[in-house]
Specification:
single chain, 111 residues, mainly beta, four-stranded antiparallel beta sheet
């Protein structure tokens, strides 16, 4: 059973930074792609960033240049470095591996 546990969310002012972390267990972490998604109130869940086992990355247009996804195989973690945060980045952020999701972590950006 794959378990994903996110951490690092919180309240930050616009222009600030946060780093989210997702710890994975119960899977062959090193070969599986990982992704960060987010869901704002009243909106559908959307892909924020993804990274393959080989380190190839993909970003939503709305975050490209501000967010960076990375993975650390020995730690079995994937990170999302978020810079220049905007109020529209406010959402619950989820980690995903295949069909498995974490419980989410709240990110709130105040104006």
């Amino acid at each position: 059973q794959v378990q994903l546990v996110e951490s690092g969310g919180g309240l930050v002012q616009a222009g600030g930074s946060l780093t989210l972390s997702c710890a994975a267990s119960g899977s062959i972490f090193s070969i599986n792609p990982m992704g960060w998604y987010r869901q704002a109130p009243g909106k559908q869940r959307e892909l924020v960033a993804a990274i393959t086992a080989n380190g190839y990355t993909n970003y939503a247009d709305s975050v490209r240049g501000r967010f960076t996804i990375s993975r650390h195989s020995a730690e079995r973690r994937v990170y999302l470095q978020m810079n220049s945060l905007k109020p529209e980045d406010t959402a619950v952020y989820y980690c995903r591996q295949g069909d498995f999701w974490g419980q989410g972590t709240q990110v709130t950006v105040s104006s």
